Amino acid sequence: MNIVVVVGAGRGLGAVLSKMLVQKGHKVAAGLRTMEGQENSENLVYFPMDVTREQEIKDAAESVKKWMGNVDVIVNVAGVLLPSDRTNTLLTEKLEDVRQQIEVNALGIITVFREFLPIIKEGGLFLAVTSEGGSFANSGALFPAYGVSKTTANKIVQILRTTVEDKVEVAAVHPGRMNTDMGRTTAQIEPEEAAEGFCDLIEGKIKVNYKEQWFIDYLGKTMPL
After folding, report:
1. Which GO terms describe its molecular function (predicted)?
2. Is residue 55 one of the residues assigned to a domain?
3. Domain count, the chain
């Protein structure tokens, strides 16, 4: 059994992954931006975790520590793709919208990692959901601000893993093109399939050499930088 924190568990991959992990016998602290209509169970407890609010993440880490002690795995799924990014270029999109996507998709990783690092067990695992859209090998301009935010997110992950060295394994994970609110127009898989992959990564069924592989997909395959 692993103790897992899933940040961004309100819908899509985060919601599916949280429940799937519990079904597989793990304990989950699920972070939500808004606490509405969620019911706690013995092995699934919800906490407010808006990644744009540093104090809220700090408080959540303290609450999780009190509830379950140190944790084995943290999966940061929290992300946003604004409607304006679907129809604009970087020449026309409001900078406010660009900033919001960078704040959530990239800076949120720093906030979560910084506040939860003290309660991750030695040799634990931190997975940040990023995207193939953050790869320099992806030359497309679809969802431009989102792409900028995910490229930034990947660099943040690279720096964080170097910063903590061998204390915690750190990786950026492309979850596949999922049929969710964010990715429906380009979907290739359902979130359940991606969640199964994440469960296999968490349980060690998919073997990854995190010393060398730090940008992977949900099946553990190395992604192009």
Report:
1. oxidoreductase activity, acting on the CH-OH group of donors, NAD or NADP as acceptor
2. yes
3. 1
Q: Would residue 68 count as lying in a domain?
A: yes
- Expressed as residue numbers, the domain containing 83 is 3-217
Angstrom distance (rounded) from CA 158 to CA 83? 29
The answer to whether position 224 is within a domain reads: no
Span between the terminal Cα atoms of the chain, in Å: 33
Cβ count near 170 (within 10 Å): 27
What pLDDT was estimated at residue 189?
86
pLDDT in tens, 18-62: 999 999 999 999 999 999 878 899 999 999 999 999 999 999 999
User: Domain with 24 in it: what CATH number?
Assistant: 3.40.50.720
Mean confidence (pLDDT) of the chain: 94
The three-state (H, E, C) secondary structure of the chain, written as one string: CCEEEEECCCCHHHHHHHHHHHHCCCEEEEEECCCCCCCCECCEEEEECCCCCHHHHHHHHHHHHHHHCCEEEEEECCCCCCCHHHHCCCCCCCHHHHHHHHHHHHHHHHHHHHHHHHHEEEEEEEEEECCHHHCCCCCCCCCHHHHHHHHHHHHHHHHHHHHHCCCEEEEEEECCCECCCCCHHHCCECHHHHHHHHHHHHHCCCCCCCCCCCEEECCCCECCC
Average pLDDT over residues 110-117: 98
pLDDT, one tens digit per residue, over 185-225 is 565 789 999 999 999 999 999 999 999 999 999 999 999 98
